[in-house]
Structure formats: structure tokens, C-alpha cells
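Late entry, written up from scratch paper. The run itself happened at the end of the previous shift, but nothing got recorded in the book at the time, so transcribing now.
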Amino acid sequence: MNQHVLAETPLLADTAEDDTPTRSTTHTAARDEIVRLVDLKRRFGETPALEGVSLTVRKGEILGIIGRSGAGKSTLIRCLNGLERPDSGEVHIEGREISRLGENELQPLRRRIGMVFQHFNLLSAKTVEDNVALPLKIAGRPKAERRARAAELLELVGLSAKAKAYPSSLSGGQKQRVGIARALAAEPALLLSDEATSALDPETTRSILALLKDINQRFGLTILLITHEMEVIRAIADRVAVIDAGRIVEEGPVWSVFADPQSEITQSLLGGIRPQLPKEIAEKLSSVPGKEAILRVDVAGDAARRPLLSELASAVPGRFRLIHGGVDHVQGEPIGSLFIGVAAKDSQVAKILDFLTARDAKAKVLGYV
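Output as recorded:
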């Protein structure tokens, strides 16, 4: 396998010599930013689609942008590839502001951005090989070069045997692999994945995500994922940005956001992943103190590594009951959510909360049963 499947060819070449340390440092930092969005705004009539989005995607990272339908994800990705022009704000790709460029100036840029689509967008009348080579044909590359590149990429995605097949004979997962190979044909600096796995079954989704992660790690390719599925973010993203009503409402390392979601929309999106209080107990909860207080305890990092419950039982008198929960690992960091029943007086519950807070756990009383 050729280890130069994805070459590094900056959109803006800088050959000028400059010995000034400050400029060099600034230039290096700028080169590390593949994407920089500054206060991006876009409206359609009276309807706002983007309301001041600012984001940075660094070289070699996978950033996941997640939000519900209508949150602004599609408009954002169209601004990134130049298909949509923002009303105001800036879109920088590899250091160049592109939002006001003409169509001819945008063409070289678009070859630096690969696109993977939800519904594959393969040409049914062309073979797999020709679909992969299409961006190179449009760019005017020689036929022999196109064939060699297509063969190289089909080997990368595990479909060398399907080079002469037509899309109609492929499974959904195979079609998406062809789509990924085609997106890589012109050696992009940035890969945009627009809901690339939402039309696939869970097993196929896992294989496609593993392929994208492998490409990212082997070639240092920067990937921006647009999705509405937290499981996709959890599987491969380094950072996540949550978009709602055209605004970024939360952003950070995936494990940190999963451990302590701040916004209501993030908490809702994580509802199917994070442990929840069993329904039969949740329905009985009351704000009136009863026999048992129900606590939710969230821990992450070092707090999740320590024997918290045994320490709690030794330090604070009372009867404790583990109702539900568990510890997961995201990006190598342990993240835990536990639901505990505490048969204790209000004063003891307060001591328990203080004890847990002092050990970097987030604890709160959900109610009483």
C-alpha cells in the first residue's frame, strides 16, 4: 500500500523567507487550522439558518457537529464547500477566506475538500472504478493516472474486486466505501461527511466509521462529521460541537461533553447513551421527603477511577442502594452515571452531597420515594 495516498498540498503556498520568530509562530499556527469560521450568519428570508457560528478545525483532527434536523448543519456544510454564501462572517479554508470568491477561484478549493454523502450519489451508468476516478477526470488528469489512483483507493477501502462492477450490484456499505474512495481521489486536505452512515444498518455503520478513523490515523486527514447520532460522535470524533437553532451551544473534547453536558439539547441528544433512572422509579418520584432519597451521581476521569461508593459508605452513616448505572469509556477516559437510593435523614443527604462534591463527583437529589 502506498503510504502517500493522501498528499499534503496546501491551498496557499508560502515560499517567502522570513526570520521573524513572531511571524513564523503565527504562520505555523495558521497552517494547523484547516477550517476557521468566524461569526458566520445566514438567513433564508425571515428564517435564520446560522446565527453567528465560530469554529476551528485543526489539522488531523475529527470534529463532529451534531444537532437535530433544522439546526443548521446542512447550511453550515454548504458554506464550507462554497455552495452557499454566508450573509456575513468569514470562512477560512487552509488560511484562505473563501466566502466571497468567484466560481473560477472556488474550483481549486473544492478539489481540496472531499465530500461523503448520506445517499452515496454514485453515477449508476459508470463502473465503480470510473466513479472513483471521476474527480480526476473533471480535473483533466491523464487516463493512466486516473486508473492507477482509482485502483490504489479501491484497495484502501477493500473493494479492489469490485472495480468493474456497477453501483446497482453493491450493498449500501459498499456504495459508501466507493463514495469515500471518490472523496479521496483528489488528495483533499479536508473530508466533509454529511450524515454518511444514517442510511446504513448498525453493523455497516461501525465498519464505515472504522474505515474513516483508519484513514484519519494513517494519513492525518482532517475530517468534519455532520450527524444527528451521538453514537457516531462517540465512535470516532476527537471533539464535538453541538448546534441548535443556528448557534453552537456547546463544544469540547468528546469525553468531556459526554461526561458533563451543559445544554439541554446536548443532554437530550445523549439521552439514549447515558444511563437514565428506570421508568418505574422515575414515575414514583416526589419532591416530598420520603423513606428514600434518589441521587444521581456523575463521575469522570480520576473521580471515576476511585472506589467512591465504598469510601462513601465508610465516611457517612446510612443505608445505600445502587439502583442503576455503570461506567463507560470514551476516548480512553472513564465516565460513570450512577443512581443511588439513600435511606437517610435530610442532614445526612446533605453530608453525602458534600462528600461526593469534594471528590469531583456531580451529585444531586432527583426526588424521594
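The chain is about 35% helix and 30% strand.
(Scratch paper discarded after transcription.)
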